[in-house]
Amino acid sequence: MLSKNDYLHPRDEIMQTMDRIYRYRMTTTSGGNLSIRDEAGDIWITPARVDKGNLSRNDIICVRSDGTVEGPHPPSSEFPFHKAIYDARSDIQAIVHAHPVALVAFSICQAVPNTRLFHQTHSVSGKVGFAPYACPGSQQLGSNIADSFAQGCDSVILENHGVVVGAESLARAFERFEAFEFAGKTLIKASKLGNVNYLDDSQLELAANRSVDLPTFERSTANQQERELRKQLCDFIRRGCRQRLLISTEGSFSARLDQDSFLITPTQQDRESLTIDDFVLVHEGSRESGKKASRAVMAHRAIYQKHPSVKAIVFAHPVNATAFSVTDSNLDTRTIPESYVFLRDVGRVPYGVQYHNNSQIAEHISASSPAALLENDGVLVTGSSVLDAFDRLEVLEATSEAVINATSIGKVSSMPQTVIDELRAAFQLK
User: Fold this and answer.
1) Which residues belong to any copy of the Class II aldolase/adducin N-terminal domain (predicted)?
2) What is the largest CA-CA distance in the chain?
3) Rounded to whole angstroms, how far apart are CA atoms 346 and 414?
């Protein structure tokens, strides 16, 4: 079955992907390059010396298999290493190279992020490697990078340079690039909190092998409530991706329709590109025909069944809050009034609880504890509406970032119990 990107011309796919990378601040105006090798063996690539934040489809260059160049600009100066990777790996059809700040930090320390922080990053990033320095644009750099890919690497740190990833499609290469940078950012943040916990093989297998096979039903016309919730979910997920509260390959968001019906994100689809018809209706444990619900669907259902007041649920991986989830550090929300009022005390869920198709995950959420850290798997946030859940997710991430930043300044000063009691009374907190 063809994906949405299979209908895009390479010019448009490269332009749209570079726009996303630049918008996410994962490269600079002059930095980075993308390419696609098409079915004829021609290589489509970003041009040299053209503003990456303002590319048009006509700026994209085609280097034909016979070496002729078509387009208004010269191809990227890094074309030699793109060509070297394609020559070394017949399975790679797209490449992303850029200078995202976290992976650049690793590159100038001659280190590679350990992606065993959580299952999705480890799976999506593939085999990671390191290529020794050589002058940008040189044949030697191409040889160094191609050697790493020839050894089976999929995501490669370039010494004192940046990162390059390859995959079977540009959509997949972007996901790999994003997940690898996310691992790097999380590690940097987590290192300020204490020892980082990594997943062993059995823990990775627990996450990778979980599956949900819901029965299906044929649905009828959507009512106005469902249409409204589809629009809200679509808008807030897109906002969450752009604010880096969600990443394209991970996270789920749902909204309750009635006692045992809710809408939820689909599995294995780019979160930012979701449209209103992509969300999956789940009714009495069955999914609407023709769609696959998130693998977290049973955890969502368990929470809804136990907590009637919950109307929306988010499982997400915002970097700073996730940094707390991969360490043993507790997140202190008694820092400013907003943090405590919105979050109360944030608990910690042992690793893997949310993967089991039982109701145990629902025990870790309550009206007085609407958010939780999932050990080595981000955060869980609930709310009385889609807006409320998203707002709470924002506050959780902002609080986490503020606390991490505070560790560089001095000792974190928590509000005393008298202030907490005052807040609980003033805002009628349970």
Assistant:
1) 12-188, 231-404
2) 76
3) 14
Domain count, the chain: 2
Q: How far apart are CA 106 and CA 309, in angstroms?
A: 44
Whole-Å CA distances, 136 to 12, 82, 244, 283, 399: 26, 12, 30, 55, 40
Confidence of residue 2 (pLDDT cuts 50, 70, 90): low
Please tell me whether residues 307 and 185 are part of one structural domain: no
Pick the more confident residue, 208 or 360. Answer: 360
Report pLDDT for 356. Answer: 86
CA neighbor of 131 nearest in space, from 154, 148, 109: 148
The CATH number given to whatever domain includes residue 363 is 3.40.225.10
Is a pLDDT exceeding 90 seen at residue 358? no
Strands 94-98 and 69-70: unpaired
**Which tokens is 360 given?**
């145990």
List, in order, residues 6 or more apart from 261 with CB less than 8 Å away.
Answer: 281, 282, 283, 284
SS3 of residue 288 by DSSP: strand
Q: Which residue do the tokens 């798997």 mark?
A: 377
Whether 51 and 123 map to the same domain: the answer is: yes
